[in-house]
């Protein structure tokens, strides 16, 4: 076979065989197919798409390029969760211990943030001492002992995705359903859980900008999961504004701690309880939202979170420390009205410029910096009332202040918001 012939076949809208897809993926991981040919192939997929059969073969070919984790030593139905990326998305930090507090084991591998999106690993690493790289045996033992562990994805898992994702990131080929579905599901399948909750984000801060594309991505991934015997549910969630009130690594840990103590904002708390209810359902445990919420209010979920942090070397005394920054700047409303938009992409990029995110993979993070919103979309605000506070170690220029203000939309309208838009199962 020759890579050029397979690129041409896809470019011309023809269907590739399983053998052809495997040949290309294996050749790429072995270094025989160079980056420039793989880039051309990714772009051909971007324009021509793939059939369901091709996506399934691509996913399994990717799984086979690395180790597969065996979680069978952990008793019970292991549930995993994955988000397709967002701004201010601290959901895993709360959801994992919350679900574990119902004795459902959560063995989760998470990723880092890039560009405007944040990563759970970066947030956890902002906790002094927290180890994200632990041996597989220790990972499994921790889940056996306390029911939850969140670590970094092993280098040995899905080698093809590591290479391909980095290539897609610089060749404008990330936001295409076949490549997102195979990237997400190859990692989830290799990570070994019995059941998977997929959080497919929708909106201007997400890869999927509209509900139709998000639905198609969700359906594709649910089918992929089911085809390999993993119970899979996808939830389409709103990413037109940031999740919760904070963006930034330590700031999101602090918000997660508030939610874990039942002191979070009602909308984000309810949203996470709904996700927990679905995850518990995947493990055959039926709970009402009130029963789930009780584990936030009675400290059960917080206790699991603290046990996880301590087990992974995190400093519990440091955990609740407020952020330590050189500058705190309040942003006040320039007019009265209702907040009609807080665009997630723009505020994600703003937080990135403060140092809370990475423009490129090698950037160093400032864990303390970020934004805390005092108001969210749909809330009314009076002129000169606080919209948000910027926490920064760089001086906020007038230009940055006006950029922030420009992105806050205040109008005389009624705006309804919804966190979960649809469930695909
Ligand atoms: N998240 C992933 O893991 N892969 C993608 O391609 C997009 C989002």
TrEMBL record:
One Pfam family hit: Glycos_transf_3
A GO cellular component entry from the record: cytosol
EC id: 2.4.2.2
Keyword entries, A-Z: Glycosyltransferase, Metal-binding, Transferase
SMART domains hit by this protein: PYNP_C
UniProt cofactor(s): K(+)
Residue stretches making up the Pyrimidine nucleoside phosphorylase C-terminal domain: 338-411
One annotated GO biological process: pyrimidine nucleobase metabolic process
Signal peptide residues on this chain, from the entry's feature table: none
Reactions that this protein is recorded to catalyse: 2'-deoxyuridine + phosphate = 2-deoxy-alpha-D-ribose 1-phosphate + uracil; thymidine + phosphate = 2-deoxy-alpha-D-ribose 1-phosphate + thymine; uridine + phosphate = alpha-D-ribose 1-phosphate + uracil
Highest taxon of the lineage: Bacteria
Family the entry assigns: Belongs to the thymidine/pyrimidine-nucleoside phosphorylase family.
Entry-linked NCBIfam families: PRK05820.1, PRK06078.1, Y_phosphoryl
Annotated protein name in UniProt: Pyrimidine-nucleoside phosphorylase
Organism field: Streptococcus minor
């Amino acid at each position: 076979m020759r890579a050029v012939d397979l690129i041409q076949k896809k470019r011309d809208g023809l269907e590739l065989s399983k053998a052809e897809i495997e040949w290309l993926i294996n050749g790429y991981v072995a270094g025989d197919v160079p980056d420039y040919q793989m880039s051309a192939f990714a772009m051909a997929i971007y324009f021509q798409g793939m059939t369901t059969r091709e996506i399934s073969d691509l996913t399994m070919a990717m799984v086979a390029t690395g180790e597969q984790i065996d979680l069978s030593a952990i008793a019970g139905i292991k549930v995993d969760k994955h988000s397709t990326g967002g701004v201010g998305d601290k959901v895993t930090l709360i959801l994992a211990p919350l679900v574990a507090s119902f004795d459902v084991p959560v063995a989760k591998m998470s990723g880092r943030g890039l560009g405007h999106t944040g990563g759970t690993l970066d947030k956890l690493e902002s906790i002094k001492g927290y180890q994200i790289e632990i041996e597989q045996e220790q990972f499994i033992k921790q889940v056996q002992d306390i029911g939850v562990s969140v670590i970094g994805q092993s280098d040995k898992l899905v080698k093809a995705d590591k290479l391909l994702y980095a290539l897609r990131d610089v060749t404008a080929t990330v936001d295409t359903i076949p490549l997102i579905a195979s990237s997400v599901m190859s990692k989830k399948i290799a990570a070994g859980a019995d059941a998977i909750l997929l959080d497919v984000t929708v909106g201007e801060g997400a890869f999927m900008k509209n509900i139709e594309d998000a639905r198609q991505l969700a359906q594709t991934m649910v089918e992929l999961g089911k085809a390999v015997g993993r119970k899979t549910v996808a939830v389409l969630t709103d990413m037109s504004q940031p999740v919760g009130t904070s963006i930034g690594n330590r700031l999101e840990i602090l918000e997660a701690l508030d939610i874990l103590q039942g002191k979070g904002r009602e909308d984000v708390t309810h949203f996470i309880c709904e996700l927990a209810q679905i995850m518990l359902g995947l493990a055959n445990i039926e709970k009402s939202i009130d029963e789930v919420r009780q584990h936030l209010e009675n400290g059960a979920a917080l206790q699991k979170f603290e046990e996880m942090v301590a087990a992974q070397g995190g400093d519990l005394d440091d955990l609740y420390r407020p952020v330590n920054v050189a500058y705190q700047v309040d942003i006040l409303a320039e007019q009265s009205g209702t907040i009609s938009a807080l665009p997630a992409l723009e505020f994600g990029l703003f937080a990135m410029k403060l140092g809370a995110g990475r423009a490129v993979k090698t950037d160093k993070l400032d864990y303390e910096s970020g934004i805390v919103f005092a108001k969210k979309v749909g809330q009314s605000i009076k002129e000169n009332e606080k919209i948000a506070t910027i926490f920064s170690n760089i001086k906020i220029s007038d230009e940055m202040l006006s950029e922030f203000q420009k992105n806050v939309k205040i109008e005389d309208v009624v705006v309804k918001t919804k966190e979960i838009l649809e469930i695909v199962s």
